[in-house]
Design brief:
9-stranded antiparallel beta sheet; two-stranded antiparallel ribbon; 11 strands; 12% helix; 56% strand; globular; disordered N terminus
Amino acid sequence: MSRKILAGLSAVALVAVFCGAVLAEDLVDNPGYAMWSKHKPGTTVKYKTTVTAPNMNNTTETTQTLKEVTADKVVIEMAVPSMNTPPMKSDIPAKIAKDKLPENMANCKELGKGDEEIKVGDKAYKCQWKEYEVTIQAGEQKFVTKSKVWICNDVPGGVIKTATETTGAMASKSEMLLVEFTAGK
């Protein structure tokens, strides 16, 4: 699979999870920071992601490792071994703009929410799920993404599972599932 397509689909998935980018005003606590900062550096989560799109079926494994925790940010390193590229680091700030939260995004509509238990290996996680629809207009192209995200506060980053379907020029379906969680020491 081309790196460009994977990067594009990853970007769409992140938009679906966090529902977009915004101005840096009205800062509030960042839920993403909160879900990582209570863990120790060295903590890892591994996910299996399956993507289906026209002329493409791909499964990858991604490992996210907590590298650093400060009062202002956490640093996460993401590795995708099948891509033969160096791991990428990203900072998750402790504070984010209030309008970056899904419930405040104009292009993000909540479709539903509930509770569900998801089993990973021999461990069951009590999750809260939310389903969103995000509409993005890029020039003449319109993308509509429906995404359901299962969150458990016990897991770094919080994400246990995502299921996403995008229509439009980049039509695709993807599912990401936690396969392993190892606490740092």
